[in-house]
Specification:
By secondary structure, the protein is an alpha/beta fold. It is about 35% helix and about 15% strand. Strands 8-9-10-11-12-13 form a six-stranded parallel beta sheet, sandwiched between helices. Strand 6, helix 3 and strand 7 form a beta-alpha-beta unit. Helix 4 runs parallel beside helix 6.
Length: about 400
């Protein structure tokens, strides 16, 4: 396998089946793990007194839109979402040299011990998955953001396992114990956090986390979490989707105006799967606003907001001709192409065709940065150790 990368997928996904939790949770918690039951009409995930049909919207790669299935069986999912050998075959079919992998944890539980343990369990599973082909499979660990000391320790554990990137929720978790998460609130817990907690990432309490990230050379990501689409509500889903993209401007603005990137100039931060066409507009708008409003708001920024966007913030997209066209505007250059495999928005198995269509007229040097070099350098693709921890059942 050659490591002379041509295309690096900056945002792809894994979909480990619910059965993996019983293999990776601590022994004392395995009895609480979700279970997969076979029903007459579908497979069901059973967890904390709830029984729900297996959701398939994140595993539609290879199907046309008219054939999408919202619910079904594990056998209906794309096997490359959780079987590494199948994944490599799909990557070869789609022309992908390497993939940065998101998704999978934690458990949406009101049991605090189980909640925090599930982050570690998922990260261990992902390390095993990536160890199958460490030059091509590059995982992103997941970290909760309620207790800063615990978050730092989990980030250090991730670094020891060979991860170079950690994903955090778009907003910090509330300090209170989870009491109403429900058995299937995992996505909101991992990706959104709590935008009403009263805590903000620019608060001094989070500075030790940013300092540790810089010390470890960790890239930090947030992943389509500022507003989570209501995937199971067809009346709201389509309107939710564009808001889930542009809403990612809010946590970025908090970090910029709160001075996080000013205090930690080496911090690298990525908004994932949020599109990038809004980057140029965002920078033009926040610069103009800051110039007029910075006096009465007592802004401590010494540079315009676009300066920090240009230096510290990156973004990934799937289909975004506007973002590509705007790449030379202030703060809009740090963009990376992705396939979103195996989710319903994926370009698989036509990623090469999608790239060709979007990059017509783009100079080769710019194109290579966007489809390969920027992600390779930012995520240090191929440099993670990804040592196997346990025997993965495949």
């Amino acid at each position: 396998m050659s490591l002379q990368y041509q295309i690096i997928d900056a945002d792809a996904h894994v979909n480990p089946p619910a059965t993996f939790w019983a293999d990776y949770l601590p022994a004392g918690l395995r009895a609480l793990a979700p279970k997969l039951e076979h029903g007459e009409d579908a497979d069901y995930v059973v967890f904390e007194g709830r029984r729900k049909k297996l959701n398939l919207i994140g595993a539609q790669a290879g199907r046309s839109g008219v054939d999408f299935k919202m619910e079904g069986r594990l056998s209906d999912t794309r096997l490359g979402g959780w079987m590494p050998a199948e994944r490599l075959q799909d990557m070869d079919r789609d022309g992908m040299d390497a993939a940065v992998l998101f998704g999978g944890g934690p458990l949406g539980t009101s049991n605090d011990e189980l909640f925090f343990a599930s982050f570690d369990a998922y990260n261990r599973w992902l390390a095993d998955f990536c160890s199958y082909a460490p030059g091509r499979l590059h995982g992103v660990a997941y970290v909760p953001m309620r207790d800063v000391t615990l978050a730092i320790q989990m980030m250090r554990d991730a670094a020891k396992r060979g991860f170079t990137t950690v994903n955090i929720p778009a907003f910090p978790h509330a300090l209170k114990k989870l009491d109403s998460a429900g058995g299937f609130a995992a996505q909101a817990l991992a990706l959104t956090g709590d935008d009403k907690s009263g805590r903000r990432y620019c608060d001094p309490e989070f500075d030790p986390f940013w300092a540790a990230a810089v010390e470890l050379g960790m890239t930090i990501t947030i992943h389509l979490g500022a507003r989570v689409p209501r995937f199971e509500d067809p009346e709201k889903f389509l309107a939710d989707m564009p808001m889930s993209k542009v809403a990612m401007a809010e946590p970025i603005a908090i970090l910029i105006f709160g001075g996080v990137f000013q205090r930690f100039p080496q911090l690298k931060f990525v908004t994932v799967e949020s599109g990038v066409g809004w980057f140029a507009w965002f920078c033009e708008y926040v610069d103009a606003t800051w110039k007029k409003q910075r006096f009465w708001t007592k802004s401590t920024l010494v540079e315009p907001p676009s300066f920090y966007m240009e230096r510290n913030v990156y973004g990934s997209f799937i289909n975004d001709a506007v973002g590509i066209a705007n790449r030379n505007f202030p703060g809009a250059k740090n963009i990376m192409w992705s396939s979103d495999y195996p989710h319903s928005e994926t370009t698989y198995p036509h990623s090469r065709e999608s790239i060709e269509a979007q990059f017509q007229g783009v100079p080769e040097a710019d194109r290579r940065q966007i489809i390969c070099e920027r992600a390779r350098a930012l995520y240090r693709v191929g440099q993670g150790r990804a040592q196997p921890l346990e025997r993965m059942k495949i």
